[in-house]
């Protein structure tokens, strides 16, 4: 176990985490241990559920000032025939304006400098899980990916995309009737018709100016003018996804670890 922790520490120190601002901050032994413990508990919960696909969230940042508990979601997919869990996720490339899709193990998913060692696991109904598995095995996730990244991407615009938005739009492709969602615009239209309402965030003027001047991965120009000037941004958050899953997918189960 000590050798494993030492190896993971070296890995954590060497990797510039996607989705972070790439400040060199090695994880401590305790942080590595707690992250791996959360990954193991998540794997046990997923195995016990009998699920094919789950939506899994981590608390990588303190977003309590915005009334949010979790910061990032990925789609956990049981990789057959190997049977291991793979998390498909969109990650921002080190604070740039670019993003890419990644396949990671549960350990890597939680080895990101967590703010809180808790996970949210959303288990869609079996029918949606089956469709999600089919979607993830196709080229649809790539078609629904927009490389232009913004942390505050507007929920109903295709100009930018954030990590949670990609996961939600992929869920839309699996939840809609076959063939109805092939593009991001179609995914957003289906979500609006299905009753998705973004959990908006309010950002003060000082924070907006600082973010726009000094952070390449934040943009505001895709948002409607009125709310934008008031500092209100309807973006896709984990809380918004959870609310939509609870209201739209009656067969879904929600677990908190």
Automatic annotation (TrEMBL):
<feature type="signal peptide">
    <location>
        <begin position="1"/>
        <end position="18"/>
    </location>
</feature>
<dbReference type="InterPro" id="IPR014547">
    <property type="entry name" value="UCP028477"/>
</dbReference>
<protein>
    <submittedName>
        <fullName>DUF2145 domain-containing protein</fullName>
    </submittedName>
</protein>
<dbReference type="Pfam" id="PF09916">
    <property type="entry name" value="DUF2145"/>
</dbReference>
<keyword id="KW-0732">Signal</keyword>
